[in-house]
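User: Sequence recovery, please. Input:
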């Protein structure tokens, strides 16, 4: 079975995944020019609190910093969280206190797991937006019934065969559709079925 799951490819050919998927697998420090004034102020505030939190005697400052970071989680503020992780990692490089290292390594693991989860959510939202804009609903709903060949899908979706093949390629890359080796049948992935049901007109 062949699956295409890298939405960054679609970004290259059709600007599908802006942001989340283009960051996948990359750990790049946020450029100050890419920050809003509010984000820059937030990062500056975190830097000051990190100065206090890395003092061995200041345990309360560490707990306050962890609590404050939680404010950025519901806002999906990945720029702030990414810069926070970068600053903590740099400070840990020369940190010898085992309590401080253990505390911040735990914080980094939580922040990293959250960042990955949010990136996946944002990517799925971007794919859903693209599906709506490109009119993929009829293709998804047709395949929701059962797997089909291009020849069957074309009349069902009122598309030319070549145009349909191009759309199906994009949908494969977006991990909505898959094909099986040695078979001309297209079928939906789990994500594709989920999105098809979401886009299905309500009675």
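Assistant: Recovered sequence (203 residues):
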């Amino acid at each position: 079975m062949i699956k295409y799951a890298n939405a960054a490819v679609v970004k290259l050919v059709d600007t599908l995944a802006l942001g989340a998927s283009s960051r996948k697998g990359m750990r790049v420090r946020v450029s100050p020019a890419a920050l809003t004034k509010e984000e820059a102020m937030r990062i500056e505030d975190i830097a000051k609190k990190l100065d206090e939190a890395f003092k061995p005697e200041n345990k309360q400052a560490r707990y306050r910093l962890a609590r404050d970071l939680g404010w950025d989680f519901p806002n999906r503020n990945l720029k702030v969280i990414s810069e926070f992780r970068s600053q903590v990692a740099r400070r840990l490089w020369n940190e010898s206190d085992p309590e401080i290292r253990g505390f911040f390594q735990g914080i980094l693991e939580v922040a990293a797991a959250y960042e990955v989860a949010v990136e996946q959510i944002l990517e799925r939202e971007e794919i859903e937006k693209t599906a709506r804009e490109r009119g993929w609903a009829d293709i998804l709903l047709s395949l929701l019934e059962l797997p089909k060949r291009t020849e069957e899908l074309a009349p069902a979706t009122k598309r030319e065969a070549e145009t349909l093949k191009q759309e199906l390629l994009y949908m494969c890359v977006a991990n909505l559709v898959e094909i099986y080796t040695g078979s001309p049948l297209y079928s939906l992935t789990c994500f594709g079925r989920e999105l098809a049901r979401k886009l299905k007109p309500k009675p």
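The chain has two domains: 19-129, 135-198.
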